[in-house]
Structure formats: C-alpha cells, structure tokens
Amino acid sequence: MSKAVIISGSPNASSRLNGLIQYVEQQLSDFNISVELITVASLPPEDLIYTNFSSPAIVAANQLVAEADAVIIASPVYKASYTGVLKTFIDLIPEKGFAGKVIAPLFIGGSSAHLLSMDYSLKPVASALGARIFASGVYAIDKQIERTTSDDGQFLFNVQEELKDRLHATAAEIAEELRLRSK
Fold it and tell me: Which pTM does this prediction carry?
C-alpha cells in the first residue's frame, strides 16, 4: 500500500485548511493510500525554533516523511507565502528529504491574489529538498469552505462542490502517479 503524509502548517485548529485536509485525506484513503498527518503546530515549539534535529517528536515526524511516497504540504497563505510555522518544520527535513516523492501543495487564502504562492514560495524550497515530481496543487479561497461548530464544540467544514472536484482531481493524480511507480 502506498503511503502519503500531509504536513499541515496551520497554527489555528479552526482553520478552514482543516476542511481541505480532511477531504483530501478521505480521497486518498478511497484510492487505497495510507495517510498520516503531521500538524506542525502540535510539535514542540522549542524544537522547531531551535532546530532540534534530535528531538523525538521531530525524528518521528521526519520518519513519516521518509516513509511516504507522497507529501501534501498544506498551509494558509500569510503575507504572500506559506506560514512561518510550516517553514520551521521544513527546515528540519533532512537534505533531499523530498527526493523521489510526489509533492502536492494545498494552500488556502482570503483571496485569489496569492495563488502563485505555491509556485513562487513553496516549489523552490521543495526543490532544494530534492522534489522533482509535483502533482497539481490546489489553492482555495476561504469563502469556498463553510466552517461551523457541532454541539460538542468540534469544528465542521463544508467544502463547495467545485473545490471538491479540484481536490479529488489532485488526489487522483497522486494515486495514478503512485500506481505507475509501483509497476
């Protein structure tokens, strides 16, 4: 079974990005791809800030990346780029840590003005880590995801159909690339 890891760079548990992540996670599972999630904001802050490569939490997260066939890098867009939280973790991924993996960005912002942030801010850094195989990314706008709260306080996300179609297409592209590579 192929493996994917989703790296979430959102510092906010109520972020609409979580709706995208949940949807893609389900789509990949439907394609028989095992999915793990790294929520960077839940990693020890001191280990991230002080680049503690030997931290057990960082070692475990990097092991998930190392074992993955595909890496989905998910982030809200702040100031025309992915979050600083995400960058602190990316800096801890070993050199060539993305080599041989299918990489797909999953970004969300307040408007389409920062659509190119996937190409101009993430791809050069991912390439420096050895990424050469990029699947189509998805850039979403906040208003495409309705956020509500359940009676027990859990965040619920309703993704618009057009966005679901694009997320499904990206998951299908990842699944097909992994299928072709396993032959």
Answer: 0.95
Q: Which of 32, 33, 38, 6 is nearest to 20 (CA)?
A: 6
Q: Which domain holds residue 21?
A: 3-181
In one-letter notation, the amino acid at residue 117 is: S
Q: Kindly report, residue by residue over 125-165, the tens digit of the pLDDT.
A: 999 999 999 999 999 999 999 999 999 989 999 999 999 99
Rounded to whole angstroms, the Cα distance separating 106 from 103 reads 10
> What ranges make up the beta strands (E) of 29-142?
34-39, 70-76, 102-109, 133-134, 138-141
Number of domains in the chain: 1
**Residue 85 belongs to a domain with what CATH number?**
3.40.50.360
Q: Which of 74, 66, 61 is nearest to 28 (CA)?
A: 74
Residues in the chain: 183
Decide if 109 contacts 48 (C-beta within 8 A). no
Q: Give yes or no for a contact between 88 and 40, defined as CB atoms under 8 angstroms apart.
A: yes
